[in-house]
Amino acid sequence: MNAQAPLAPALLKNEQEIDLLELFSSLWKQRVLILAITLGVGLLGAAYAFLSPRYYQAQSVLRPAAIKDLDQLNQLGFYKLTPAQAMARVGAALESYDNRLGYFRENQAAFEALAQPGRSLEQTFEQFNADAIAMLVPDAKKGDGGTPFVGLKLTYPGEIDGPTVVNGFVQYSIDVVRQQVADDVETMIANRLNLLTSKMEAARASYEATKEIEIAKLTESDNLKRAKLQDELRALRLQLKTRRDNRISQLTEAITIAKSLGITKPSTPSSLGTTDQIIQGSVIRTEVNNQQIPLYFMGTDALEAERKALLQRRSDDFTEPRIAQINKELKLLEANRKIEILKSRENEDLFLSELAGWREEAARLKTWKIDTGNLKLVAVDQEAIDPLAPVKPRKALVLALALVLGGMLGIFVALVRQLAQRHLRPA
Questions:
Q1: What is the predicted pLDDT for the residue at 263?
Q2: Are residues 256 and 346 in the same domain?
Q3: By CB distance 3.0 to 4.6 Å, which of 62, 167, 263, 402 could disulfide with 258?
């Protein structure tokens, strides 16, 4: 028994080799069946490849416009749109569901082949948007991250004019962004004009307030100065009247003394002492006295004459030079020429320094025009054109897969058939 044990593996190996040979022999005998099944599945694949609806692809690629294309738009100063920003806005419009639906609604004739009974327009578009439209953006993994672009790819059945739809939707999106830019610019210009108008009105109101304040200050200053001068004038006149009254009193007292002394003509104390002496010949008297001679030595004639003149005087203004100066200043205060000039200004806008610049900017904004219809927001790098071949179904690939699957199915059927025959074979 020990001597027969090593023979088991050899017998098993020989049995497996006999089974494989038998298997290949069985498959070869059933080669017609396998070939028939392979050809049958291949025919089904061919029928699918040649009879199923064909789908095509069309795409359009956009790149940033040149800086000069947006220069006129950026000349406003307060509105800036770079080429990258413009392309981003167009890309957002291409990706916008609302824009796609709007284009779909406006061009229903181009999508008649998609219509199905029982489906609404929105449902038809929903499926078309989900299955057929794809965005093209730079892929950083492929190394095109430094080349900015945006695009649209459409997979469409043969009944639809795909290139026309793609190019039309791209132009539709560009027009939408153009209108948005035009609306933005128009709104910003209107807001800027309103702001300039508000600034000009505020400047005019401020100028009027400043002018009124200046006039009020000048008037108040003149009134104060006039009041001070009038007070000074009254004080001076009272002072002069008091001085005249005092002089009259002095003269009256001096006249009384002079009458008692019998002095009628001007004399001196020394001459008064020699009145009774007889002087022969010519006598010249010289009197040196550092004391003031009393007023009564002027004599009653001179004193009475002066008193009479003082009593008849109606005004003492001529005796004080300051009164003439005060009258001159009061006369000048009767009319303030600066106030008159301020009130007589006709075109007060000329005196507002910033108003000229605001008016110039407002005039420039009112006359500023841009043809947004020809505004080049992006550069169309690739327009959609009719493809040379459909993208699906791929006939060669479908045929190859059909033949492979047909061969595998034929072999599987042959193997099953072989196993069934072995089980049915008599012991």
A1: 87
A2: yes
A3: 263
